[in-house]
């Protein structure tokens, strides 16, 4: 019995969590990257400018056929996997991979999710824009996955993808890595047009919102230390685990061909979570 108690006390989640969170908060406050936030803001403004220009020149539906016509060039499975990477459950599951090492990332992502939910769902309700399957005749476009109908503006998947990419952009250095992250976000956004779920304007605005809200989330997280307290951290972890288990239970967001890929990622994230939170704690590192 005594040995069992000693093992439980040695678990990171019991013994070292408060110290890890304090260390994380200190690093987060000391390593403020104003330049990264500036670049994200500039990129968001470029996307918004592109959306406005496209709307003025070609209308709300502009450039859809120009892009969507190339959908058959790649397998439907590819587009389903890429577009599912913008699903909220998938992004939250990915966050489990870095939860222990970067608790500050979870806190920023949590705030961005709250802001983003209010913004995107508010705009969807306000504009009530029809999606391509409603506005276009059957056979006039390439559809992959389920035919979605309402709430086209802005793209929620594009917001989610760019929010996660922007959070990772802020916390991970390296020019090539950051470029890769932005390209991934762009590919996920493009996939929403290729599967006929959104118009290009939806994607551009959704991506811009993801970046701008991430900037706001970073600044909010610096003002509120509650995310570095163990009850809130465990609550966020609980939400991430729910998302992970949803995928493990078969959630595909209407893209069944992405299921195997999603389950592999979810299972890997679960293993990482268990190993990093419940195996004997390791000494804190300075970075």
Description:
It is a single chain. 70% of the residues lie in helices and 0% in strands. Helix 6 crosses helix 11 and helix 11 crosses helix 12 (200-223). The two termini are 36 Å apart. It has helices at 2-10, 12-15, 17-30, 34-58, 64-68, 76-84, 88-95, 103-127, 132-135, 156-171, 175-194, 200-223, 230-248, 259-278. It contains 14 helices and no strands. The protein is globular. The longest helix has 25 residues, at 34-58. The chain is mostly helical and 287 residues long.
Task: Summarize this entry quickly.
The protein is mostly helical and 287 residues long. It contains 14 helices and no strands.
Number of contiguous helices:
14
Query: Which class best fits the helix and strand makeup?
Result: mainly alpha
Shape: globular
Relative helix content? over 70%
The total of beta strands comes to 0
Q: Radius of gyration from the CA trace?
A: 20 Å
Overall pLDDT score: 93
* pLDDT < 50 stretches: 283-287
Main β sheet profile: none
Strand content: under 5%
Query: What is the helix/strand order?
Result: HHHHHHHHHHHHHH
Tell me the distance between the termini.
36 Å
């Amino acid at each position: 019995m005594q040995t069992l108690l000693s093992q439980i006390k040695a678990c990171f989640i019991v013994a070292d969590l408060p110290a890890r969170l304090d260390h994380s908060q200190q690093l987060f406050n000391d390593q403020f990257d104003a330049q990264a936030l500036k670049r994200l803001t500039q990129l968001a403004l470029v996307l918004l400018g592109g959306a406005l220009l496209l709307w003025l020149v070609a209308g709300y539906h502009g450039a859809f056929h120009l892009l969507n016509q190339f959908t058959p060039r790649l397998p439907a499975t590819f587009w389903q996997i890429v577009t599912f990477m913008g699903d909220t459950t998938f992004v939250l599951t990915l966050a489990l991979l870095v939860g222990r090492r970067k608790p500050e990332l979870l806190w920023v992502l949590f705030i961005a999710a709250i802001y983003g939910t209010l913004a995107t769902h508010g705009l969807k309700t306000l504009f009530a824009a029809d999606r391509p399957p409603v506005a276009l005749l059957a056979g006039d476009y390439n559809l992959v996955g389920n035919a979605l109908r309402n709430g086209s503006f802005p793209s929620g998947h594009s917001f989610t993808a760019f929010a996660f990419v922007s959070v990772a952009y802020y916390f991970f250095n390296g020019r090539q890595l950051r470029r890769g992250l932005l390209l991934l976000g762009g590919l996920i956004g493009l996939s929403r047009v290729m599967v006929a779920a959104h118009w290009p304007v939806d994607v551009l605005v959704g991506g811009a919102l993801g970046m701008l809200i991430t900037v706001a989330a970073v600044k909010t997280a610096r003002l509120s230390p509650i995310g570095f307290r163990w009850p809130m951290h465990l609550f966020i972890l609980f939400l991430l685990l729910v998302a992970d288990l949803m995928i493990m239970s078969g959630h595909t967001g209407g893209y069944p061909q992405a299921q195997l890929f999603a389950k592999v990622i979810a299972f890997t994230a679960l293993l990482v979570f268990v190993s990093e939170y419940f195996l004997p704690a390791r000494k804190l590192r300075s970075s």
